[in-house]
Amino acid sequence: MTVPDELREVAPAVWELPRSYKQGMRVPALLYGTKELVDAFDPGVFEQVANVAMLPGIVGHSFCMPDGHWGYGFPIGGVAAFDPREGVISPGGIGFDINCGMRLVATDLTYDEVRPHLARLVDRLFERIPSGVGSRGFVRLSEDEFLTVARDGAGWCLRNGYALPEDLERTEEGGCMEGADPSKVSHRAVKRGYDQIGTLGSGNHYLEIQVAREENVFDREKASAFGITRPDQIVVMFHCGSRGFGHQIATDYLQTMLDAMEAVYGIRILDRELACVPFSSPEGQDYFAAMQCAVNMSFANRQVILHRVREVFSDVFGRPPDELGIRQVYDVTHNTAKLERHLVDGDQRTLLIHRKGSTRAFGPGMEGIPEAYRDHGQPVIIGGSMETGSYLLAGVREGAQTFYSTAHGSGRTMSRHSARQRFQGRKLVREMAEHGIYVRSVSMRGLAEEAGGAYKNIDSVVEATRISGISTPVARFIPVGNIKG
Hints:
This protein is of the alpha+beta class. It has a single domain, classed as tRNA-splicing ligase RtcB (Alpha-Beta Complex). It is 33% helix and 24% strand.
């Protein structure tokens, strides 16, 4: 790949693209990664992170995380902060799958206890948690009831028997962004989402049974605080989002912004995928309120999936979930815009933080972290490929440099089309079985798209976050069972 001549390493695993790189950049861009990772970035990443640096009201820098790759508008792995009075909001800086996030669940089971039941567990989970394009959940709601979910998020799940109070306490934003306004959501978006609660969807969404090997626990104090306490402990990790609901909201408001951006607000940009309007404008506020509805639907979606996980484990082991020690570690969001307080040039300021394919990673002592974790930093859940492994990390004080943002996964190295040409789904099933991973998927084609060889090395990505000081590894998890759309 071609790396710009202007790119310079300004700190370990931190690279600056100066304003001189491209006319119109209001701030420099910072890209995170080892030289090996940065050299492998596709050229579109450098162009996109520079284009983001041109948006009105941007503060500090335009960022790209170590798992970054080309995306729609922002690079996936992109982060940017905007002054809410002077800056913009852009659906291309949030993504179509609003709040596609990660949830990590610990158990008191060990691998030796689970191994004889592994295939049955995965098969049952595959039956109980619908996956694939167009899948429908078991929660039956009217459209009006669904709008209540979009307003209340995981709180609706708690009232209806799908959650425990501690689940919400250990979910980012408590499982609900409070500014959601269902009146700002189109009927078409509701039609696309009202029957999808409790579903994984397709693409890179998955649910995985994993093992925490003793040698893969790097910080025992933090691991213990987060609930990783025994050798060969079984955990469950899953990744999904707001499904068709969030996609339609993004689609609706992209068109709204394309219509208003230049004609009403005189904003001109190089890339139409960065369509935006002032955050304070009526269009900006309407989108923000609708986006929060998608965030809340996604929280509810993952909460209902956790309810199903508890049911399945209880059925297979013949014991109630509390006796199995099934408890949520944390739930983190990707693909959001949030108003947060950050220190800028010595002053505390409210900023609108866009995180697209990146994870919030608040440091120790910060508000917004569950009390049980406050001294250790926010848990960060980073999913790898289905063949390699995933990580639990923690936010660090030095993370202020990225407005407390870090990577969200391993990041793709090839397109889905290229992966289908190179890998075969049925062969992957056999190879994964040989490595002790039992997988179920609705589509062999979709499985091929998610082959481990289509992704960056997760260990390299996590090491880059450590070297650069934006998060710290706590434990690595090895996959043993997987369901995919």
